[in-house]
Amino acid sequence: MTASLWQRYQDWLYYHPGLGLYLDISRVRFDDAFVNTMQPKFAKALQDVEALEQGAIANPDEERMVGHYWLRDPDRAPSPEIRDEIVTIVENIDSFAKKIHSGEIRPPQATKFTDVLSVGIGGSALGPQFVAEALSDIHPPMQIHFIDNTDPAGIDRRMAQLGDRLNSTLVIVTSKSGGTPETRNGMVEVKKFFADKGLDFSRQAVAITMTGSKMDQVAKSEGWLATFPMLDWIGGRTSELSAVGLLPAALQGIDIHAMLAGAKEMDAATRAKELKQNPAALLAMSWYYEGNGKGEKDMVILPYKDSLLLFSRYLQQLVMESLGKEQDLDGNTVYQGIAVYGNKGSTDQHAYVQQLREGVPNFFATFIEVLRDREGTSVDIEPGATSGDFLSGFLQGTREALYDNNRGSITITIPEVTPHMVGALIALYERAVSFYASFVNINAYHQPGVEAGKKAAAVILDLQKQVMQTLKQSPSPLSVQALADAAGASDHVETVYMIVRHLAANNRGVTVEGDLAKPASLMVKA
């Protein structure tokens, strides 16, 4: 290391004494002139985020506020009603988890609940999965399982893993609107498994949803054990510190109050008015520099700790759904976004670091270092070197190798993986996303692309119904083109072909005859 690089490290190192967190951006090659150009953007971003915290409408598409920061500091909420609602939800989660653990609330056919089955998708699954992997004890009071897709084979596998413990499994169904197809499908599938085993689903089910939603109505009409509210001003990707993440964490015995406290402490740090004293701003500035303000480089997340394996998956949604936007706030077509992927150290040494070191330089890396190796002492693998020393060496060596070949990197160092620290990491990235969105003049809090995909899927399912109706009414087999014509979908022949191919593969009352390599020659009948 040159003397100038060592000095740069000291000049740009951020340290939070309360959290024991370090942020090092010295291996991002910006200069003072670039920092000066970012100062006005930083000042505007501070104002933008302050307005959000005070209750400004952040999502004009849905006319709603965005207030995930109020969850960990209710006194900052814009009204006493919101403050009281936040406090009450956490109190109810505490009370419910204690009653579940004590057996005061128990399943009809077992003495206590032993497992949690979480049914949700996107933000309703990724945050709870990350936190479970990071913080759950080896022998938690309740084991957690996830159905986070509408894949029938995946659902079967998860239910088979529960096996005879289904009668002691608490099911949490999470959907803000109650109309999310994947979550509804999972709920219907799980209900059938319960019915097939002679179990009463409603006596073992909990809903996390908006008050008055379809799911809220179902849960109350069927007499589910409990419902916990999702709040209008919380989006899925920022919901981990709401009931969405706090309830499953509490049931696993994770200290949710420490998570909230860590997030609150980090939030305070990210309100700092000086750029060098604001860790979220430093992160966002580094992203902006590396991607030229246009997302020209991918963000590679490399946590050197097994328990943080799922952090990159969690950040994929937080970053990509927030920043991946076609238009900016002025209506200009900008195609913004930052692609996120990652593995874990030192697995990545044997997976893709070769490309990071010598391949296409279309990325910047974020190393996450955890100082404490383990509980207790470590055996020497070699004289004076433990497994943890090797892990640290791999991180430092990879960081140096990337820099030597003109690949930028950020390093976040934390003392250990605790609820307090995980809450802080979540808050750090949430605020960095807000700052970056302001830097590039986009709305981080809507997702028109996601909604477009949902609408397109609904159109295809409607067409499937029309195809089946047409086949049942036809006295003879039809070619794919003739079927499409008769179903009123002449311009969607390929979609009709894919529909019937899927139905035939699953014995859904459709038969396809002919040369499968020549789709146009196939004949289809019901």
From TrEMBL:
Principal place of residence: cytoplasm
Subcellular location: Cytoplasm
Enzyme class: isomerase
Taxonomic lineage from the root: Bacteria, Bacillati, Cyanobacteriota, Cyanophyceae, Oscillatoriophycideae
The entry's keywords: Cytoplasm, Gluconeogenesis, Glycolysis, Isomerase
Organism per entry: Oscillatoriales cyanobacterium SpSt-418
InterPro entries: G6P_Isomerase, SIS_dom_sf, SIS_PGI_1, SIS_PGI_2
Protein name: Glucose-6-phosphate isomerase
PANTHER family: GLUCOSE-6-PHOSPHATE ISOMERASE (PTHR11469)
A GO biological-process term: gluconeogenesis
This enzyme's EC code(s): 5.3.1.9
Pathway assigned to this chain's UniProt record: Carbohydrate degradation; glycolysis; D-glyceraldehyde 3-phosphate and glycerone phosphate from D-glucose: step 2/4; Carbohydrate biosynthesis; gluconeogenesis
